[in-house]
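Hi, here's the filled form for the chain we discussed.

Project: internal
Contact: R.S.
Residues: 182
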Amino acid sequence: MRLEVIVASTRPERFAPVVADWFVRAARGRGEFDTGVIDLIDAGLPENLVDTPEVEAFRARLAGADAFVVVTSEYNHGYPAALKTAFDSAKHEWRAKPIGFVSYGGLSGGLRAVEQLRQVVAELHMVSIRETASFHQAKKQFDKAGNTQDGAAIDAAERLLTQLAWWATTLRSARLANPYPG
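And the returned structure, exactly as it came back:
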């Protein structure tokens, strides 16, 4: 199964690569997924949502995926604008596929952004995985090598990946047997 990890933050000097790299290592350490990374800083998606070759390539990448995980920060109690652009740049490619979240931030650990994202992905006909890995005061949770000793987050990531694999397998079988009507 193909898992695409979407790195949401596009800010200069962002912390996103540290969290994303940690999660990608965890995902690749298991056998369920062939894991790729879509970093929105490199995606070239236009904010005005017009079709471009970059948008077509993005949609093709989404269409080939069986599952997604978004690694997101929280800005002003919300999620990054680049992530909303990414969601709005495609439609059918998201449908009937599971999505999980890994969040990071200050005291809230990005969880307010995740709660908002659950509403967005429901509208896209996606299945949101209940388990979320989150890092409160994220910069204090990782060492210089990008590793963490945050046991709660490590455990949550493992449960997230287990649930994601179940949903990805189930929904892929369902899409093949009977295309999603949405």
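Let me know if anything looks off before we file it.
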